Structures are given as C-alpha cells and as structure tokens.
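Table 4 source record.
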Amino acid sequence: MENTNNPQDQKPAFKITNWNDSSKKLKEQFSQLTESDLKFETGKEEDLLARLENRLNKKRPEVIDLINKHQTK
C-alpha cells in the first residue's frame, strides 16, 4: 500500500527563480498590477500569491501557473 500523505506531495510546484523578469512580464500582461502587488520578499511567497490572486481575481493554481509560465530557466 502506498503512502499518499507524503509531505513532498503537499508542496505547490512554485519556486521563484528570476522575479525581476517574471514581474515585468506579468506587468505587461496585466496592466492593473502595481509595483506593490508585484513586491516579492524571500520567504513571503504566500503574501505574493495572495496579492496576485486578489488583484487578478484568479484562484491560486491559476496564479502559480502564470508565474511559472514567466519564469526564465
């Protein structure tokens, strides 16, 4: 029987690698975003996600997908 309660499975697929570029791309795509909305501090990813969810009127998985789409490798 597999253990489906693996803590690693609970983590969202969300990691910010180059926020300067990503935030610029998001701002271009969504002109309603402000510098305050896009402010990122290491360790405060949840705050960033909450602001973007609210401003863009999107659910968390949608916001994470948008951010991941704009991440540079």
